[in-house]
Amino acid sequence: MPNPEVRLLEPHDGIQEYDNPIPAWMSWTLGLIIAWGVCYLLFYLVGDGPTAKADYEAAVAENIKLQFQEIGTLKPDEPTMLTYMGKPDWMAFGKSLYQTNCQSCHGPTGLGVVGPNLCDDAYKNVEKLADVARVVTQGAAGAAMPAWGARLHPNEVVLVSAYAASLRGSATGGKAPEGKIIPAWPPVPKSEPPKPEAKGTKP
């Protein structure tokens, strides 16, 4: 029996609210959403279901294949690095790789932060140009310099190494020189300008 002394306060507009249950379809919808959420967590986070990261990495790998179709697989040697150091479009690609993976340690312009200065003439683990690609691939300094060979496509290693090497002499100041001074890189060949299209003869 309700307490006769307890009276419901009616709102000023005269509308009375009732405690009615929500429709059954709403309850079933909520239950299905909760069940789907639990299955999602088990499949994607606990199990081996594909993740957004895996999908992204697969898409990046496919894009890289398309980008590198025209150049094949590059060798991490001196002639190849010199050739691509003279190609502005591919150096722009190498710069994007550098900004993504290297600038946190070597600085946005290569003047060094935690890692050594790439703009001076002193090197700790490099004696010739091809050694830059070797260090990028294998790492150095007891893993203080990560081994990027397992993380990057071989062409990415060559292009980011060529870009890093191109920073030598590009700026002054920054972190003090480390290691020993080595000879200058060989001259970079000039990139050939695009050939003009042959004009058709007039009839």
Relevant CATH superfamily of one domain: Cytochrome c-like domain
Major sheet: arrangement of strands: 1-2
The helicity comes to 40-55%
Oligomer: single chain
SS-based structural class?
Answer: mainly alpha
Characterization of this structure:
- This protein has 7 helices and 2 strands, in the order H-H-H-H-H-E-H-H-E.
- Helix 3 packs across helix 7 (154-166), helix 4 packs across helix 7 and helix 6 (129-138) packs across helix 7 (154-166).
- The chain is elongated and about 90 Å long.
- The chain has a two-stranded antiparallel ribbon.
- The protein has 203 residues and is mainly alpha-helical.
- Helices cover 43% and strands 2% of the residues.
- It has a domain at 73-181: Cytochrome Bc1 Complex, Chain D, domain 2.
Topology:
Layout (H helix, E strand, L loop, with lengths): L23 H23 L5 H16 L10 H8 L2 H14 L1 H4 L15 E2 L5 H10 L15 H13 L13 E2 L22
Antiparallel strand pairs: 1-2
Give the gist of this structure.
The protein is mainly alpha-helical. It has helices at about 25-45, 50-65, 80-85, 90-100, 105, 130-140, 155-165, and strands at about 120-125, 180.
